UniProtKB/TrEMBL annotation:
PANTHER family: ALPHA-GALACTOSIDASE/ALPHA-N-ACETYLGALACTOSAMINIDASE, ALPHA-N-ACETYLGALACTOSAMINIDASE. Residues 306-389 form the Alpha galactosidase A C-terminal domain. The keyword RNA-binding does not apply. Keywords: Disulfide bond, Glycoprotein, Glycosidase, Hydrolase, Lipid metabolism, Lysosome, Signal. Homodimer. Its EC number is 3.2.1.-. One of its GO terms (cellular component) is lysosome. It comes from Pomatostomus ruficeps. This is Alpha-galactosidase. It catalyses: a globoside IV3GalNAc-Gb4Cer + H2O = N-acetyl-alpha-D-galactosamine + a globoside Gb4Cer; a neolactoside IV(3)-alpha-GalNAc,IV(2)-alpha-Fuc-nLc4Cer(d18:1(4E)) + H2O = a neolactoside IV(2)-alpha-Fuc-nLc4Cer(d18:1(4E)) + N-acetyl-alpha-D-galactosamine; a neolactoside IV(3)-alpha-GalNAc,IV(2)-alpha-Fuc-nLc4Cer(d18:0) + H2O = a neolactoside IV(2)-alpha-Fuc-nLc4Cer(d18:0) + N-acetyl-alpha-D-galactosamine; Cleavage of non-reducing alpha-(1->3)-N-acetylgalactosamine residues from human blood group A and AB mucin glycoproteins, Forssman hapten and blood group A lacto series glycolipids. Removes terminal alpha-N-acetylgalactosamine residues from glycolipids and glycopeptides. Required for the breakdown of glycolipids. Gene3D superfamilies: Aldolase class I, Golgi alpha-mannosidase II. One of its GO terms (molecular function) is alpha-N-acetylgalactosaminidase activity. The lineage of its organism: Eukaryota, Metazoa, Chordata, Craniata, Vertebrata.
Length: 403
């Protein structure tokens, strides 16, 4: 009861992240590489973030909505300064975070930073203990930070229950709009009764529910399995200003094939997931870039209704169908193959997928970009889905002919 009464005071409603945040994040691709002597090009340093900001601004990403450049762990010095303040590593970030933020803002982008509600960050850098919450929020605001990811290593469940709402209040109190990404549910198993998604949506703009993504198809599948197995709990929790975060897009790295890359993008889009890429934008392949810069895909991901999609069919043939309702009566359908043998011809109808009777839809193939034609709810159709691949459709309702 006390928690319920306290709710209005912790409400985050900061007007931010009305659609899932999009941008770039250092962790999955660059991790905690701090050896700038041996590997200056790939270490966690201001140079890396300056260069990624240039790529987002100059290579067509910014115009599509990829606006955040997010620093993850291992950016700070190993100790706070004499005033107890977090400071960036002087060798790797000699200009300071404020200068980096100014540079990022000048390029029409936003800067994200990483903290950890605990004694240390996961990488062993100074954490944000409860007594430091207000000070750190103020520091980030003064630096010009636009997004905070607050991790949960080296903290207890009690500290997290106090600290995550406390940071929401502290960020709001700075007067600077800062999107708040929490790792809280991931440290509590991601599910009720330990995680209360109603309260979480009042505190955080997005939250990590589950394990860190790794550069492998197995990792992507484990995340997809967990999210859709638990969709009855997770799906209602998402909406404008508060999103489930299945973690970064690893398209453009080493672990996914072309088909698997297309699948990750489609499934994250249907989940209304934040689109935070973690790849080297300086060397990204044209095919990976094409997947990540698909305009219709991004339009679907950023749909203003903000409804998270669901898995609606799971066939014995290892074909799965996912549906996301969109604004103006439109829908996104993803046909996903878990098969590993050969392309599979899957036949169904919109009626079988619970679309309204007697409706007529214009069907557009999201990856091909082409309008396939008009489809009535009762019509049978077939799609050919490659192994570990997807076919994704955008369906727009058309006026029905007068009977």
């Amino acid at each position: 009861l006390a928690l319920a009464l306290a709710l209005p005071s912790v409400a985050l409603e900061n007007g931010l992240a009305r659609t899932p945040p999009m941008g770039w994040m250092s962790w999955e691709r660059f991790r905690c590489n701090v050896d700038c002597q041996a590997d200056p090009r790939n270490c966690i340093s201001e140079q890396l973030f300056f260069e990624m900001a240039d790529r987002l601004a100059d290579d067509g990403w910014r115009e599509l909505g990829y606006e955040y450049i997010n620093i993850d762990d291992c950016w700070s010095a190993k100790q706070r300064d004499a005033a107890g303040q977090l400071v960036p590593d002087p060798k790797r970030f000699p200009s300071g975070i404020k200068v980096l933020a100014d540079y990022v803002h000048a390029r029409g982008l936003k800067l994200g930073i990483y903290g950890d509600l605990g004694i240390f960050t996961c990488g062993g850098y100074p954490g944000t203990m409860l007594e430091h919450v207000k000070q750190d929020a103020q520091t980030f605001a003064v630096w010009g930070v636009d997004m905070l990811k607050l991790d949960g290593c080296y903290s207890s469940a009690e500290e997290q229950a106090k600290g995550y709402p406390e940071m929401a209040r502290a960020l709001n109190a700075t007067g600077r709009p800062i999107v708040y990404s929490c790792s809280w549910p991931a440290y509590q198993g991601g599910l009720p009764p330990k995680v209360n998604y109603t309260i979480l949506a009042e505190i955080c703009n997005l939250w990590r529910n589950y394990d860190d993504i790794q550069d492998s198809w197995d990792s992507v599948l484990s995340i997809v399995d967990w999210f859709f197995t638990n969709q009855d709990v997770l799906q209602p929790a998402a909406g404008p200003g508060h999103w489930n975060d299945p973690d970064m897009l690893i398209i453009g790295n080493f672990g996914l094939s072309y088909e698997q890359s297309r699948s990750q993008m489609a499934l994250w889009t249907v989940m209304a997931a934040p689109l935070l890429m973690s790849t080297d934008l300086r060397t990204i392949s044209p095919s990976a870039k094409e997947i990540l810069q698909n305009r219709l895909m991004i339009q679907i991901n950023q749909d203003p209704l903000g409804i998270q999609g669901r898995r609606i069919v799971k066939e014995k043939s290892h074909i799965e169908v996912f549906l996301r309702p969109l604004s103006q009566g439109a829908s996104a359908l993803v046909f996903f193959s878990r098969r590993t043998d050969m392309p599979f011809r899957y036949t169904t109808s919109l009626a079988k997928l619970h679309f309204p009777e007697d409706a007529l839809y214009e069907v557009q193939d999201v990856y091909a970009g082409k309008v396939i034609g008009a489809l009535r709810t009762a019509d049978n159709f077939s799609v050919i889905i490659n192994p570990s691949g997807v076919v994704m459709w955008y369906l727009r309702p058309m006026a029905l002919p007068v009977q």
